[in-house]
Structures are given as C-alpha cells and as structure tokens.
Amino acid sequence: MASLAPHRSSSIALRCIVATSGLSDDQGLMCDVIFRATRDMTLDNVPFQLAVLLYMSDSISKPEIIAILKNIIAEKIKPGLEAQNLETTIPLLDGGLGLDSIMIVDLIMAVEQQFSFHFAEDDLSLDSFASLDALAQVIARREVECSLAT
Predict the structure, then answer these.
(1) 31/70 same-domain check
(2) Range of 40's domain?
(3) d(C-alpha 76, C-alpha 88), whole Å
(4) What is the per-residue pLDDT across 8-24, written as a single tens digit (0 to 9) for each?
(5) CB contact at 8 A, 82 and 74
(6) Per residue in 94-123, is it b (16+ CB within 10 Å) or e — as a string?
(7) Which of 4, 13, 49, 97 gives the lowest tally of CB atoms within 10 Å of its CB?
(8) Which of 14, 34, 58 is at the close of a domain?
(9) Structurally, how many domains does the chain consist of?
(10) Are residues 72 and 134 both part of a single domain?
(11) Do 67 and 44 lie in a common domain?
C-alpha cells in the first residue's frame, strides 16, 4: 500500500496532476488542505488522487463563494448596498464596509447557515474577516475540510 507520507512529495505530485487537469486556481489551492486532512491515510493506488480531483472539480469556486457573500452582505447585513458594487478586496471592518461586532456575528451565522458548516475557533480571527476574498478563502477551506470529515 502506498502512503501519502511524506506530505511534501504527495503534495507536489497532486499539484502536478492539478496543473494538467484543467481545474481552476481556486480549486487547486484546496490541494494542500486535502493532503493535510488525509496525510495519515494509506492508499491502494493513484485513483484516490483522481477521486480528490473529481471532488475538486465539483466543489464551489471562490468566485461563486464571493458572489454568495456579496448577496448575504447586501441583503442581510447592510441592506441598501449593491452586491455587484462590492469589491473583493474591500475591508469588511474599519476603512471599508465598517461592519461592527453585531454585523460580524450576523455574517458568521448567515455564512454557517448558507454553507452548512460551523467556523472553527481558529477561523474566527481578524485576518479571516479582512476582506471578502479572505473570508471566501476560509469558507472554501472549511467546505473541503468538512466534506473530507464526513
């Protein structure tokens, strides 16, 4: 049986497969998450990696996550904002949308409901809510981690 260890070699191998598979960059970014979550597994052969790639090709992309986040903010958190006018790099807190602590809690609850997962304690940092892009990255990673856990 082949093992995913060492992590570095397996990760490099999967990146090579991803590079030639036609997956988007956003989907390719999830490869390291998959290998962190599965590095102790043993494999019978390469089809496991192909199954991972198939999962990645069916997963929601970061641009789709950002579109959903924009709608959540425009409809539930700050009604009156135009979703299409929100930039992915706009700060969610000071100097940007100016979301306060109550709005952030509302955003967390709406995201958890929309994407059917709960944020890990480590995800609840200022860095995770720095921008729509940063939050989308956390959501994409959590979706992969949660689906691998089931």
Answers:
(1) no
(2) 2-58
(3) 18
(4) 344 444 444 444 444 55
(5) yes
(6) eeebebeeebbebbbebbeeebebebeeeb
(7) 13
(8) 58
(9) 2
(10) yes
(11) no
